[in-house]
Protein 1
Amino acid sequence: MTPTLVRQHLPHAGPAPRVDLCARARDWSEIQERMLVPLYEAVYERLEVGPGTRLLGLGCGSGLALLMAASRGAEITGVECHSPERLALARDRLLPEAPEAPAGVEARLVEDCPENVTDTRTAPYTLVTAFEPIGCLAGDSEGLAELLAGAVPLAEHGAAVVLAGWGPPERCTTSSVLRVAARLADPLRFTGGWRPTHRDDLEEVAQRAGLKPDGSGRVACPFGYTGPRSAVRGLLSTGLFDAAIAATDQAQVEKELTEALHPHRRPDGTVWMPNVFRYLIARVP
């Protein structure tokens, strides 16, 4: 998501932001990606991911969720359509020839659309994940639906497809910070609101993809940082502030973001923002 959160799979409207995409991808990998680990763990535990699981990760980013699945014994494939910089970091983590790759992990990583991961040697996938939470950018659900359209035919009958979204704003402390992005990106239309995932957004995406909902859950995913500087770098790495940077400049966004983080600083200087994310499990008919 350009690097994106959370998307990774979500296109941005407007001019391309003036950012260092390689540095942004490193910040995602080193700071922000771990914030969704409780979500990955909850889903993998509920679906009993392990040996025999053939997982296709959409918007795999720098590969942390894939690595966690592989550590459980799953066979993993990752697709990253919008951030070659993040995918390069995933290769360092997961491909056998990479110096940072752990022993015993084998992965297929594709810098393209899901349709191009077909391989006659590979059995259909038993699990498809789209962990990038929708609900912050206009059109993000449409982007997710497009990804699913290419991925669902690769999965076997009854395979689980997992979608994720932000929880209600009253349970997402980060929503107050994300309002900075909305206000700076489009000040004339800004009304003070932040549009989190609506209650049925994930179900609607699943329905458009021809999937049958089969359960859901909520997971606490607090965003914790060593300090404001780390928080700013992590949040900018999501791509959710790119439109604001394009409309103003990075220095202005960083200044206002730092101010918005002030209420969330703890006495020891760290930044702590509790959030809740929702996931939906749907099945391939």
Protein 2
Amino acid sequence: NNMRNQKLKDLRDQLKSSSRIFLAGKKVMQIALGRSPADEAKTGLHKLSKFLQGASGLLFTNLPRDDVERLFREFEANDFARTGSIATQTVELKEGPLEQFSHEMEPFLRKQGLPVRLNKGL
């Protein structure tokens, strides 16, 4: 989680003179924006609420649209996948000894559907 926070902090630092980034859960963000014209902070702001799903982030900036789109195209952070992520590459394990895995991994590999056998407990 620290890496994710660091990448976001780097982005915030890069944009601090021109922009603000707000992160919050869906309900908190909807309350902040307003869910209807009656409770919105500025006219039309409640319309954003319907686009929010899960944890959301909003970028408020005075940068031109082209600059923002370029910035996000160029901003990339490699990170470990979390459970439920879609794989970006195929990993093939050939039959035979799997030296890259310790014997403690056997139950996990078996649970993933791999036919696994320990040789002499190793």
Protein 3
Amino acid sequence: MSKTCLITGAARGIGRALAVEMAKHGYLLALTGRNQEQLAEVREEIVSVNPSAHVEIYVLDVTDYPSVFDVISVADQSLGGLDIVIANAGISVSKPVGVGGFEAHKSVIETNVLGLMATAEAILPFFKERNAGQFVAISSVAAFRGLPNHSSYCASKVAVKSYMESLSMELIGSKVLTTTLFPGYIDTDINKHMASRPFLISAEQGAKEMLSLIQKGVKVSTVPKKPWSVVSQLMKAVPESVLAKLS
């Protein structure tokens, strides 16, 4: 029997690549995003490769928190129970602190942190009732060290890391799984503006590695695992002055 999965932020970037990759493996999908046209394009791309693919799309802004609960409830019923939910929706802003960017930074926190929390709160009752399911959070290697001009993004990814650590401990003794992934530089619009993107990989390769980790039930991993599992630890030791220049 095919597994079911809901992905937030599936209209672009990592979410879109994950949707395409998971469809290749026969998953029944519920895809959410803010842009109806882009979601339709993802569905068309999937169906063009696999005409029998089952893809449902839902227009959703994860900062519309009541709608998160509504959409997940509808998708869970429509797909006969969600096996996996991937909280991927996220945004970033490149702006120093103190230059009038509070609203932009606030949006980052609302989307990346509160949106993910709403997603978890919406699906966990279903998972707990069935004593099954996997909640996947997309964090970032930015969770391991603050970077200049990306204060809110780094803060949001640290928050995701800590939130998932707490959730994982709460679920000890149950069969509900958590997976937290920390992507490095994956070639998507969210980082195209950056002057330096070390160890860059394509969205397609990133999606393949993420799906492999999800299927294995890995609790925590960088993406790709190497070199970022090592680099993420080294980042903590780099002097601020050096890291500021590199960034």
Protein 4
Amino acid sequence: MSITIKDVEHVANLARLELSEQEKEQFTSQLNAILKYAEKLDELQTDGVEPTSHVLPVHNVTREDVVRESVTNETALRNAPDEEDGQFKVPAVLE
């Protein structure tokens, strides 16, 4: 697979970028170099290699979920600039 200047122009158009002719040529060669490097992965012998999602073993390090006392409604609304019926009252954003 090879990237052409037309491909770079198409992506630039989608991203709403204005590129000079020099930038288009530069990005074309850079993207082709990346693809050429990625093609080297095809040369690797991966038979018998177990698929992984991480290079290192990762495990969940979150704390245990513990039920505890929550903030009361009055405490939560104590610093509210405005409240109504036990809820924060904010200016309308839609008409």
